[in-house]
Specification:
The complex is a heterodimer. Chain A has one domain: MetI-like (MetI-like fold). In chain A, helix 1 crosses helix 10 and helix 4 packs parallel to helix 8. The longest helix of chain A has 37 residues. Chain A is globular, with a radius of gyration of 20 Å. Chain A is mainly α. By secondary structure, chain B is α/β, with parallel strands linked by helices. Chain B has a domain of 161 residues: 3-Layer(aba) Sandwich (Rossmann fold). Chain B contains 9 helices and 9 strands. In chain B, the strands form 2 sheets. Chain B has a 6-stranded mixed beta sheet with strand order 5-6-7-3-8-9, sandwiched between helices. In chain B, helix 3 packs parallel to helix 5 and helix 5 runs parallel beside helix 6. The chains are: A mainly alpha, B alpha/beta. Bound molecules: adenosine-5'-triphosphate and magnesium ion (MG). Adenosine-5'-triphosphate (ATP) binds next to helix 1 of chain B. The site of magnesium ion has 4 residues of chain B, from helix 1. Chain A: It holds the Pfam family BPD_transp_1.
Chain lengths: 234, 236
């Protein structure tokens, strides 16, 4: 039997039998990534919107930084966070290294620039459309931001989903800051890396298929919840 | 509270070293319809935006009878190409009311009333960007009037509309005027200008070349350029 079929079979077996280890690490993957996604979105969406509508002194610099941060290698992000969180580091007292929280922090750092940057581009176009009307209606700054976020929600959803995709599949940074500890910080991607290293390709592939399935399921679920397809484009 | 008159004093708009408007001295008194005509690029839109306070003056001043903040809240503007929020027709109508904290029940009443006036009662849930050009223009006008402004600025509200749609808009404008709304409108349609104007301004090269009551403006123009403009000659 070739490796792919074996992988599919072992994935099917893991899922059908609701393998406890699989369930545990899948749920942890989801929890870490969704937490990171919520935190990152809360930071990135208002940030991207403000960058689109507000002129201030270092606006261009911030945008350039964001774009640069989008390309940060996750391994380096992991390394920096490791140094910050390690016992001797400035945040060492918090004792966060090798916990899911550390993994959330790493993912937030990785996806916030991505979501903020896509948000900024989308909101810039919408603002060009709305600018005169909102100024004319005397909308306060807060009302302008809320209006743009609300009317741009479909594009924002795409930004958030892109962030989810990047975070759920990330391995380098969370391996470093999480440590891939069984029953503590092991998630799908780090488990895949581990099994591949051990030479258990079938199990690694099985986990990989579960990961892909989960990513697709979350995408579909979010789309269904927000009614993107039903209402179509405005 | 009456926000009028509006006084422009030596108002000038310059951008990148080029003078787009001015110097303009003008007093906008209470009541009636003022129509602004002039060739393309003469500065009609810029003048309207200056009056509305959305175009920064390079020099000179524009003062309402009350502080700017109070005056702002009592004006509305219909832009040359109507800006539709990416929401339903009802949500577009509701938007200015919601911004200014009108109670939900009162919003509903006003939305129903205005949708009926512009013939969009059956389209309340339609996304506004899907409306036809004429419907958008009517929606933009209703959205401007729903907040009961004292002064309404319109920038070519009937450009690219056919006769019936134009008449519908003019009907709404007459109703608004009769209800006491001060109207200032730029248009390229001389028939419309004659039909609606109480007085008129001729803008040429960024300045007001002539300002007069309707009959004098259209029947006895003083400025030679206005005479040829009304004749249909090309004026630049
Ligand atoms: N932000 C700007 N920067 C530079 N030039 C501008 C700007 N806005 C307008 N202009 C120029 O100012 C002049 C007057 O423009 P304006 O839109 O007021 O003319 P208009 O009379 O409304 O013309 P139309 O009949 O075509 O609508 C034009 O030459 C235009 O190109
Ligand atoms: Mg214009």
């Amino acid at each position: 039997m070739n490796t792919i079929t074996e992988g599919l079979l072992s994935a099917a077996k893991l899922v059908v039998t609701l393998d406890p280890d699989l369930v545990e690490i899948s749920l942890r993957s989801l929890r870490v990534t969704l937490t990171a996604l919520v935190v990152a979105s809360i930071i990135a969406i208002p940030l991207g919107t403000v960058l689109a509508i507000q002129r201030f002194r270092y606006r261009r610099t911030v945008i350039a930084l964001l774009n640069a941060f989008m390309g940060l290698p996750p391994v380096v992000v992991g390394l920096v966070i490791y140094v910050l969180l390690s016992r001797a580091g400035p945040l060492g007292v918090l004792g966060l290294l090798f916990t899911p929280t550390a993994m959330v922090i790493a993912q937030v750092v990785i996806i916030t620039p991505l979501i903020a940057s896509v948000t900024h581009q989308a909101m810039r176009d919408l603002w060009a459309d709305y600018h005169d009307l909102l100024i004319s209606l005397n909308a306060t700054k807060r009302q302008r931001i809320m209006t743009l976020i609300y009317d741009g929600r479909r594009t924002l959803l795409t930004a958030v989903l892109a962030g989810f995709g990047r975070a759920i599949g990330e391995v380098g940074a969370i391996m470093i800051v999480g440590g891939n500890i069984e029953h503590a910080t092991r998630v799908l991607t780090t488990a895949i890396a581990l099994e591949t290293g051990k030479g258990d390709f079938a199990l690694a592939l099985g986990l990989g298929f579960v990961l892909i399935g989960m990513a697709i399921a979350v995408n579909l679920a979010i789309h269904a919840l927000s009614g993107t397809e039903r209402e179509g484009r405005w | 509270m009456n926000i009028l008159p509006l006084r422009l004093t030596a108002a000038e708009v310059r951008r990148r070293g080029k003078r787009l408007l001015g110097p303009v001295d003008l007093t906008l008194g209470t009541g009636g319809v003022t129509v602004i005509v002039g060739p393309n690029g003469s500065g009609k839109t810029t003048l309207l935006r200056v009056m509305h306070g959305v175009e920064r003056l390079s020099s000179g001043s524009a003062n309402w009878a009350v502080p700017d903040r109070d005056a702002q809240a009592r004006q509305a503007f219909v832009f040359q190409s109507p800006i539709m929020l990416r929401r339903s027709v009802a949500a577009n109508l509701r938007y200015p009311l919601a911004l200014h904290g009108v109670a939900r029940a009162d919003q509903d009443v006003a939305v129903t009333e205005w949708a009926a006036k512009i013939g969009l009662s059956d389209a309340l849930t339609t996304p506004a960007p899907r409306l036809s050009g004429g419907e958008r223009q009517k929606l933009a006008l209703a959205r401007a009037l729903i907040g009961k402004p004292q002064v309404l600025f319109l920038d070519e509200p009937c450009a690219s509309l056919d006769g019936a749609a134009t008449l519908a808009i003019e009907g709404l404008l007459r109703d608004a005027r009769d209800a006491g709304v001060r109207i200032v409108m730029a248009t390229h349609d001389m028939g419309q200008a004659r039909r609606l104007a109480d007085d008129a301004l001729f803008v040429l090269g960024g300045t007001i070349a002539e300002a007069a009551s309707r009959d004098r403006f259209f029947d006895r123009p003083q400025h030679p350029a206005l005479a040829s403009f009304l004749n249909g000659d090309i004026v630049t």
